[in-house]
Write a structure and sequence with these properties.
The complex is a heterodimer of chains A (about 180) and B (about 400).
Chain A: H1 2-23, E1 28-32, E2 39-42, H2 47-56, E3 64-72, E4 79-88, E5 93-102, E6 112-114, H3 122-133, E7 137-139, E8 167-168, E9 171-172
Parallel strand pairs in A: 2-5, 6-7
Antiparallel strand pairs in A: 1-2, 3-4, 4-5, 8-9
Chain B: E1 15-20, E2 32-38, E3 41-48, H1 56-62, H2 65-73, H3 80-95, H4 103-131, H5 136-156, E4 165-166, E5 169-170, H6 178-201, H7 204-210, H8 218-223, H9 229-233, H10 240-243, H11 269-295, E6 319-327, E7 330-338, E8 347-351, H12 353-358, H13 361-365, H14 370-380, H15 384-388
Antiparallel strand pairs in B: 1-2, 2-3, 4-5, 6-7, 7-8
Helix pairs in contact in B: 2-3, 3-4, 4-5, 4-11, 4-14, 5-6, 6-11, 11-14
The chains are: A alpha/beta (about 180), B alpha+beta (about 400).
């Protein structure tokens, strides 16, 4: 068990070094390998290239994108994040990639992240979901529409400053609750 | 408001738009497929989902971890136990108590999960038969599923939405006599599976409807993030119960069935169906081993309290964690962000297996006949409660 921990630590470092070698030192903004899963925060504009590299490179071969989540990092921070959970079926290894975008949270201009849907097709629907619920614009996505909410829904439900809609399509959503008296 | 994605002005003369669903009987719930058809051939298929969207993730941010479990139940309502199990595992791992869960609790969890897996696969098999015209197997499957639901109702008090597996333990110990009745059920169930094989799996009409239909090559399956029987049907031995070896699965003996292309091409509808049928047999094996342990070395005792390890304070350290597990439909994952201050998750994203499995449908449907589209959709085995969350 102890051995496995050491080897996975070096594997995390190997991956982060691989990114640094290919795209320069500044491509990796920070790393956190002390938690349950290794996290590498990378530069936002390089995410598509880094993903392609990690998918094809023989040291890691991350062929499977488990999950892609958009996150609103809180009202006081005014930051958004997109988190990529990669997994390698061949090598049985997992890692977390992350990009963080500063954004003043207005809904007219969304935070922009390059799409990875050409690298893993899983990202296609997952990015649409992140766009729908968190309001992150994925540049280069082939078909960025709302996926879970209706097309004419206003606002992004998973943002921390979201106020629940009062009506939709002319109907009150939470009408007054009347009790029998 | 225009509800179509296709640009009508760009349609060719011979093409027609056909809306399939949301009220179509073989849509397994409320799924709408927008089809561009040329005669009987599907040229393009665009799924429209979200009719059951409840924004589980927003609810989760307002509730503490224990209170989220009933919401998790309602995601894939055909296999609530498995949903709970993965969720609970993730929270326990974050709290650091995953190693101190009593063995009896773990075995009970695996037992009820595998029973639920059998029930879920029985629905998949039964409704799949009905989708393509065989009504009898549906009743066979539902009769057996009813026994499982009765067992689980006996243990938890509910037929479908159990809220039985709790963080750090269980709602209650198994009722007295559960193990015996469960093994009685499994004994009478095994020959029934052979009956079902004769009735459906090896039925030449059924084979004719499913062989070489909806072939999903392995690289496409991986690239689209398919998991579960979808991925294994395409011929890869990938089961998270083995890969991650969570809970007590490493102590149990079971095989992982994969698609071999017995009736045609590897990764066709028949292969996916067959993987589910054979997985039921494996789940029976696991359940029997669990019962054996639960009646011998981990026998019930008056001192055993499944709630003894329930944490008094449910506040994980500030961290993030992605927990994944194998449910009947595939890989279910929860991505938690804990802020270290409250007992509510800062963010809780669910990666639903059916969501990614369904996203491959446009690829499979291209060039298929409309009648085959039903066969393809049925073989994916989606639950819309989980797709829409």
């Amino acid at each position: 068990m102890e051995n496995r921990k050491i080897s996975s630590l070096t594997m995390n470092e190997k991956i982060s070094n691989l990114i640094k070698e290919s795209f320069g030192e500044q491509a990796v903004l920070s790393t956190d390998f002390n938690g349950l899963q290794g996290i590498i925060v990378v530069q936002t504009n390089l995410i598509a290239e880094i993903s392609l590299l990690l998918r094809n490179h023989p040291t890691c071969y991350f062929d499977y994108l488990s999950c892609l989540s958009g996150v609103d990092l809180g009202l006081e921070k005014n930051q958004f994040a997109v988190v990529y959970h990669l997994s390698s079926i061949t090598l049985g290894y997992q890692i977390v990639l992350k990009v963080i975008i500063d954004h003043p949270r207005d809904t007219t201009q969304l935070p922009i992240v390059p799409t990875v849907s050409q690298v893993w097709r899983t990202a296609d629907w997952h990015e649409r979901e992140a766009y729908d619920l968190v309001g992150i614009y994925f540049q280069g996505h082939p078909d960025l529409r709302r996926i879970l909410c209706p097309d004419d829904w206003e606002g992004y439900a998973l943002r921390k400053d979201y106020v629940a809609a009062e009506s939709y399509g002319g109907l009150k959503i939470n009408g007054e609750v009347k009790t029998n008296e | 408001m225009n509800n179509l994605k296709t640009d009508l002005s760009k349609l060719k003369n011979e093409e027609m738009i056909l809306n399939m669903g949301p009220q179509h009987p073989s849509m397994h719930g409320v799924l709408r497929l927008e089809l561009v058809t040329d005669g009987e051939t599907v040229k393009e298929c665009i799924p429209h989902i979200g009719y059951l969207h409840r924004c589980f993730e927003k609810h989760a941010e307002a509730l503490n971890y224990q209170q989220i479990i009933p919401f998790v139940d309602r995601m894939d309502y055909l296999s609530s136990m498995n949903n709970d199990h993965v969720f609970v595992m993730g929270v326990e791992k974050m709290l650091g108590i995953d190693q101190s869960i009593p063995k009896r609790v773990e075995y009970i969890r695996v037992l009820v999960c595998e029973l639920n897996r059998i029930a879920s696969h029985l629905i998949a098999i039964g409704t799949y038969g009905m989708d393509i015209g065989a009504v009898t197997p549906f009743f066979f499957c539902f009769k057996e599923r009813e026994h499982i639901l009765n067992l689980l109702e006996w243990a938890s008090g509910a037929r479908l939405l159990y809220n039985y597996i709790w963080i750090g333990g269980l709602f209650y110990d198994l009722p007295v006599g559960f193990e015996q009745r469960c093994s009685e059920f499994l004994t009478q169930f095994k020959p029934k599976m052979r009956e079902l094989d004769e009735l459906l799996t090896n039925n030449s009409i059924f084979i004719g409807r499913t062989q070489n239909i909806g072939v999903l090559p392995l690289d496409v399956a991986i690239n689209y993030g398919c998991s579960g029987p979808m991925l294994r049907g395409s011929g890869i031995n990938y089961d998270l119960r083995r890969i991650d070896a969570y809970s007590v699965y490493p102590e149990l003996d079971f095989e992982i069935p994969i698609g071999e292309g017995k009736m045609g091409t590897t990764g066709d509808c028949w292969d996916r169906f067959d993987v589910r049928v054979r997985e039921i047999a494996e789940s029976i094996k696991i359940a029997e081993q669990c019962i054996e342990r639960l009646t011998k070395e981990l026998k019930r005792s008056p001192e055993f309290d499944p709630r003894a390890r329930l944490p008094k304070k449910l506040i994980p350290k500030a961290q993030e964690f992605y927990c994944r597990g194998e449910m009947p439909k595939g890989e279910l994952g929860y991505y938690f962000i804990a802020d270290g201050k409250s007992d509510k998750p800062f963010r809780c994203k669910a990666r639903a297996a059916s969501f990614s499995n369904l996203s491959v449908l446009p690829e499979l449907a291209k060039g298929a006949m409309i009648a085959d589209l039903i066969a393809i959709l049925g073989s994916i085995d989606i639950v819309l409660g989980e797709v829409d969350r």
